[in-house]
């Protein structure tokens, strides 16, 4: 799960900045928009908008396309879906782990709490 | 405020709190998804090291132990073999509460946004305090 987790980390970090979240919100509203349009909506310069858009683009959260003389940015939801799926998988992993500790704790022969979660390795 | 870069799960266990505590307070017990056969445990550099034949080696740092209700650990789950530290690790919190004659065990794993972001251009990954509405909505929709 390492590679997935790194991708998800990338998405989380890209989303960690409040300005970038505002940008994504603006793109949801606009459908697609140029850096100039987005700078009008947000309390930051066009240069700052472009810098943030680059970060979002690196994380796969926006795509840029040329329309005449303008570059239009558009939200890309695939990484968000992937992040949500990854969180769901992790939830399932924790459910398995919690089930295991439940089984161990509820086992009638669990003499003390320090017992291993399953049969000890006979070689050990 | 809740942040979506964490996961929370809980389970009701029909066993006394002290027994559950004994299991949950052991660093790295969750590694191997319940199958701990073949694991080797050691202690180095102030870390508890779990060497799992399938998943690899995970140094675990004990962050806090407050028997019998709370324990927290830090590990670098995405980076087998690496010591948990700034930028590569998540924090796991376990909370135990007596409930319905048994024990409610709750886990929170947090800090996924701290994982390194090699291609970020502005090098400024601060400000996670604020809620991440988009992802939170999506995460809540797909999880329970």
The total beta strand count of chain A reads 3
CA-CA gap between termini of chain A: 29 Å
Strand order of the largest sheet of chain B: 1-7-6-5-4-3-2
The helix/strand order of chain A is HHEHHEEH
Globally, the shape of chain B reads globular
- Unreliable runs of chain B, pLDDT <50, ≥5 residues? 117-139
Strand % of chain A is 5-15%
How many runs of DSSP E, i.e. beta strands of chain B? 7
What does this structure look like?
The complex is a heterodimer of chains A (124) and B (144). Chain A contains 5 helices and 3 strands; from the N terminus they run H-H-E-H-H-E-E-H. Chain A has helices at 2-15, 18-30, 35-41, 46-58, 78-106; strands spanning 32-34, 62-67, 70-75. In chain A, strands 1-3-2 form a 3-stranded antiparallel beta sheet. In chain A, strand 2 and strand 3 form a beta hairpin. In chain B, a hairpin with a 3-residue loop joins strand 4 and strand 5 (70-75). The two termini of chain B are 20 Å apart. Chain B has a 7-stranded antiparallel beta sheet with strand order 1-7-6-5-4-3-2, with helices on one face. Chain B has 144 residues and is mainly beta. Helix content of chain B is 12%, strand content 38%. Chains A and B meet through helix 1, helix 2, helix 4 and helix 5 of A and strand 1, helix 1, strand 7 and helix 2 of B.
State the main characteristics:
heterodimer, A: 124 residues, alpha+beta, 3 strands, B: mainly beta, seven-stranded antiparallel beta sheet, globular
Give a quick precis of the structure:
The complex is a heterodimer of chains A (124) and B (144). With 124 residues, chain A is α+β, with helices and mostly antiparallel strands.
Topology, element by element:
The complex is a heterodimer of chains A (124) and B (144).
Chain A (H helix, E strand, L loop, with lengths): L1 H14 L2 H13 L1 E3 H7 L4 H13 L3 E6 L2 E6 L2 H29 L18
Antiparallel strand pairs in A: 1-3, 2-3
Helix pairs in contact in A: 1-5, 3-4
Chain B lengths: L5 E8 L3 H8 L15 E5 L2 E6 L3 E11 L3 E6 L14 E10 L2 E9 L22 H10 L2
Antiparallel strand pairs in B: 1-7, 2-3, 3-4, 4-5, 5-6, 6-7
């Amino acid at each position: 799960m390492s590679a997935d987790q790194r991708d998800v980390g990338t998405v989380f970090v890209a989303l960690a900045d409040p300005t970038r979240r505002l940008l994504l919100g603006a793109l949801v509203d606009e459908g697609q928009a140029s850096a100039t349009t987005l700078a009008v909506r947000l309390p930051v310069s066009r240069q700052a908008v472009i810098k943030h858009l680059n970060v979002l683009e690196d994380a796969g959260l926006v795509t840029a396309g040329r329309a005449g003389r303008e570059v239009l940015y558009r939200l890309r939801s695939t990484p968000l879906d992937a992040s949500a799926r990854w969180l769901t998988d992790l939830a399932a992993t924790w459910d398995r782990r919690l089930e295991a500790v439940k089984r161990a704790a509820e086992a009638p022969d669990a003499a003390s709490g320090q017992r291993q979660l399953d049969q000890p390795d006979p070689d050990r | 405020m809740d942040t979506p870069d964490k996961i929370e799960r809980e389970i009701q266990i029909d066993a006394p709190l002290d027994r559950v505590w004994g299991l949950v307070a052991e660093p790295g017990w969750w590694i191997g998804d319940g199958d701990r056969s073949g694991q080797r445990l050691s202690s180095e550099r102030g870390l508890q090291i779990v060497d799992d034949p399938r998943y690899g080696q995970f140094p675990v740092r004990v962050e806090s132990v407050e028997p019998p209700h709370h324990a927290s650990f830090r590990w670098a789950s995405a980076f087998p073999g690496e010591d948990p530290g700034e930028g590569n690790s998540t924090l796991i919190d376990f909370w135990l509460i007596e409930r319905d004659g048994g024990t409610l065990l709750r886990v929170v794993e947090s800090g996924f946004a701290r994982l390194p972001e090699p291609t970020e251009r502005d090098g400024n990954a601060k400000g996670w305090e604020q809620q991440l509405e988009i992802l939170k909505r999506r995460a809540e929709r797909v999880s329970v």
